[in-house]
Prior knowledge:
By secondary structure, the chain is an alpha/beta fold. It has 14 helices and 17 strands.
Amino acid sequence: xxxxxxxxxxxxxxxxxxxxxxxxxxxxxxxxxxxxxxxxxxxxxxxxxxxxxxxxxxxxxxxxxxxxxxxxxxxxxxxxxxxxxxxxxxxxxxxxxxxxxxxxxxxxxxxxxxxxxxxxxxxxxxxxxxxxxxxxxxxxxxxxxxxxxxxxxxxxxxxxxxxxxxxxxxxxxxxxxxxxxxxxxxxxxxxxxxxxxxxxxxxxxxxxxxxxxxxxxxxxxxxxxxxxxxxxxxxxxxxxxxxxxxxxxxxxxxxxxxxxxxxxxxxxxxxxxxxxxxxxxxxxxxxxxxxxxxxxxxxxxxxxxxxxxxxxxxxxxxxxxxxxxxxxxxxxxxxxxxxxxxxxxxxxxxxxxxxxxxxxxxxxxxxxxxxxxxxxxxxxxxxxxxxxxxxxxxxxxxxxxxxxxxxxxxxxxxxxxxxxxxxxxxxxxxxxxxxxxxxxxxxxxxxxxxxxxxxxxxx
Length: 459
């Protein structure tokens, strides 16, 4: 090798080392900041019992409400510990005096991912007595589901059956109902002995402009899917900060006060919020209120009112240096695209990514195919499995491709990969979860969840 090639190779290695060092430094800073936020909520006086504030969150709402609860109590001088429910043991409950819990529900009454271990390990103890424990519970749900606030109600019943004493009657919240949340704050103020708790109002919705919209699947057997690009309405205004995995809440003009969540398919480096929206149909055949407006009624240049919302459960977290297995279907590609674009923007081509994506037909429904094929050619994506359910006589879905690649899945996970799933709750998410259990084993999958290496954004 010539001296010039040696120098080039050495320079390349040096640049790579500097990049890795910078990433590690940023990661340590983020960890320190997160730890400082938690440390500020720990009891300041040795020997003074802390109140536990626990959360079971799937989309991040319960986590945010738990943080606001803990901060409010801390401001009022109450020592408090904040944790996801999965990190609270039976011993913690037996030693605690007060527990405030914010619990959402996944699917039809199931615990969210951040509470699965608690549900299967702690709530399996039917004989334990918790008569010393004083409990307040906020259950989050949606009345359009059959089992409204299902997990929150199960948790409340389990605690009461163990003899726990209710600080106040359980509060059930239907889709962020402000009156229910106000009752929660009133109870907190009473318990903390103050009438001056901080305002918890969500960040204000802001005007954005629909810069572009593209119909991605003309001729599809399914409903229309559109790519949307949105920028702040004020010319030259800075974009808000967000991370891959985060959401936007869009308010439809005809339904003020009821914003809809959509996964962000871009990163700030793209200069715009990208959304992937499928027009849905209501029972009478009319377009869905939000999706119909975004894909048809709103015109390029129109104002769209929205806010960015963090989704801690689907962010990259501690998985920035891990291989990624990205699994999804339909418009779930939006959340996965955000993670792919984030990794590419960070220049992490040496950390492998594997995409498994399912839709109806290859000719119409291969969303972002040119972009994804280019990423694969350039080495950003180590592997891509396209799965089209209706391109053959027998229906084939993402879970089937996953099962066929079982050996590779085990190898990737064994090498430290994290698994991210985004898409439909009905069908895909449950089937993929069952397939992963078969491939990895139920205990191993639970451990991946506890370690933050198995994350889901499903709807």
